[in-house]
């Protein structure tokens, strides 16, 4: 029995079931179980599944995930996104495209307390899109800025995707969090430059309303004051990890407690239905992610039995081409996979194979994870499976069609490609903070 041939058949079945719409976790479990049962025995497959379920959840890294998910749910229920958006809008008043600028930096600020790009895009779709339309902003311009700004939560800590990367690769989650800060800020700055330039060239895209012209210095000061909660909470969590004052797990616990206390003090979380909704949301997200991770790790064990990762790794490491060509091939594969499958599935399927190759070729593992995350951000807004775009279309209302969101994202995707080129050319952008953290 050819183990490699069975592994190739399993991968083909996995991709076919994904295209057919079978849920990701069930897909991984089904293909992995059938594959291991074929290679060994059904009882061996059952035993290995039970072992995977225990060893995966027993990992200390897993405790980070529910804590930061809870922190994000409590922050969203406490109205932190609205405060960030309104505060930055006051600061950016009279700047061309000020509402889109507020969306970019408001999403970046909210990302420091919410690790989900889908949640960020949905929240700002409900907050920013009606305001932009009320001010007369072009529909596609508005939708594109919200969808792509929402993807900043994938890069800026506490990113849920970075936690998944840590589980799949073994890289320190604290270092990954620090590595995402400067690339995330850089992306927000490049978005803002693009927004201002386009709004100046084509004023009809983002008209400056009379309300903005009446903003005073006092209003701008009030805008800074609106940001204090989100800056304080994000600063404590990220600053504590950077300084070595506490670990990523402790940071998640402090962040969740801080979001709860601020929400209670401010008033929103005094409402039991709202608090209950935030707790229910965090529990649902956590269990879904746990299910996907366990299934993905089980499938990776099936791949390990087939020796496909080892064979591919040996071939690519010994391939007589420059290492940057191998890296470029990996990025191209991710780009193509991102067009047909969700990023979590693409990374769960490929990281066990490509990560050892990249490390063997001498690339820094933290830098590589940041590059992979930038590819994840691009995949999140590009068709046909741009999850952020679909989340925004659902949150913005019945008058928004998915093709309008996709039509508006391309100028921002170009910005993402510029940032990707900078990250590839200057690894220090990603590595400076991880290398200086205590």
Keywords:
438 residues; mainly alpha; globular
Verbal overview:
Its main location: membrane. The protein starts with a helix and ends with a helix. The protein is an all-alpha fold and 438 residues long. The protein has one domain (61-275, 308-436). The mean pLDDT is 85. Helices cover 79% and strands 0% of the residues.
Summarize the structure in short.
Helix content is 79%, strand content 0%. The chain has 438 residues and is an all-alpha fold.
Average of per-residue pLDDT values: 85
The best one-word shape is: globular
Structural classification: mainly alpha
Instruction: Give the helix proportion (percent range).
Output: over 70%
Q: Tell me the fraction of residues in β-strands, as a range.
A: under 5%
Radius of gyration: 22 Å
Low-confidence sequence ranges: none
Order of helices and strands: HHHHHHHHHHHHHHHHHHHHHH
Number of strands: 0
Membrane topology: Multi-pass membrane protein
InterPro entries: DctM (IPR010656), TRAP_DctM (IPR004681)
Domain TRAP C4-dicarboxylate transport system permease DctM subunit: 12-429
Main location: membrane
Layout of helices and strands:
Blueprint (H helix, E strand, L loop, with lengths): L2 H18 L3 H16 L2 H16 L6 H14 L2 H12 L6 H14 L5 H18 L4 H12 L9 H10 L3 H29 L8 H4 L3 H10 L1 H16 L4 H19 L5 H35 L1 H11 L4 H16 L4 H18 L4 H15 L7 H10 L5 H24 L2 H9 L2
Helix pairs in contact: 1-2, 1-15, 2-3, 2-15, 3-15, 4-14, 4-15, 5-6, 5-12, 6-7, 6-8, 6-10, 7-8, 7-20, 8-20, 8-21, 9-18, 10-19, 10-21, 10-22, 13-14, 15-18, 16-18, 17-18, 17-19, 18-19, 19-21
């Amino acid at each position: 029995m050819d183990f490699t041939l069975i592994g190739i058949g399993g991968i083909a079945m996995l991709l076919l079931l994904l295209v057919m719409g079978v849920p990701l976790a069930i897909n991984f479990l089904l293909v992995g179980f059938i594959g291991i049962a074929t290679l060994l025995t059904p009882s061996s497959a059952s035993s290995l599944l039970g072992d995977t379920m225990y060893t995966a959840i027993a990992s200390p890294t897993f405790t980070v995930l529910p804590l930061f998910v809870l922190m994000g749910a409590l922050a969203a229920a406490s109205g932190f996104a609205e405060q960030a958006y309104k505060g930055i809008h006051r600061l950016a008043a009279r700047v061309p495209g000020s509402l889109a600028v507020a969306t970019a930096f408001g999403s970046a600020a909210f990302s420091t307390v919410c690790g989900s790009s889908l949640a960020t895009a949905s929240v700002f779709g409900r907050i920013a899109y009606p305001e932009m339309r009320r001010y007369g902003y072009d529909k596609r311009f508005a939708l594109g800025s919200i969808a792509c700004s929402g993807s900043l939560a994938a890069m800026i800590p506490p990113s849920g995707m970075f936690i998944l990367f840590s589980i799949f690769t073994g890289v320190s989650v604290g270092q990954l969090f620090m590595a995402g800060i400067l690339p995330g800020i850089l992306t927000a700055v490049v978005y803002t430059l693009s927004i201002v330039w386009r709004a100046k060239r084509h004023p009809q895209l983002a008209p400056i309303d009379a309300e903005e012209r009446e903003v005073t210095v006092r209003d701008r000061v009030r805008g800074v004051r609106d940001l204090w909660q989100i800056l304080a909470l994000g600063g404590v969590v990220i600053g504590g990890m950077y300084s070595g004052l506490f670990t990523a797990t402790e940071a998640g616990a402090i962040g969740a407690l801080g979001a709860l206390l601020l929400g209670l003090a401010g008033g929103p979380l005094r409402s039991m239905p709202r608090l209950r909704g935030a707790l229910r949301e965090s529990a649902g997200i956590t269990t879904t992610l746990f299910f996907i991770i366990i299934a993905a790790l089980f499938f990776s064990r099936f791949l390990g039995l087939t020796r496909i990762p080892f064979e591919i790794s040996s071939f690519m490491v010994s391939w007589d081409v420059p290492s940057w060509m191998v890296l470029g091939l990996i990025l191209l594969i991710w780009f193509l996979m991102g067009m047909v499958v969700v990023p979590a599935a693409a990374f769960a399927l490929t990281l066990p194979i490509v990560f050892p190759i990249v490390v063997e070729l001498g690339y820094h593992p933290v830098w590589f994870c940041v590059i992979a995350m930038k590819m994840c951000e691009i995949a999140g807004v590009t068709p046909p499976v741009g999850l952020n775009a679909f989340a925004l279309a659902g949150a913005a209302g019945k008058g928004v069609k998915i093709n309008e969101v996709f039509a508006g994202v391309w100028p921002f995707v170009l910005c993402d490609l510029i940032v990707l080129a900078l990250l590839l050319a200057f690894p220090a952008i990603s590595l400076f903070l991880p290398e200086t953290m205590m």
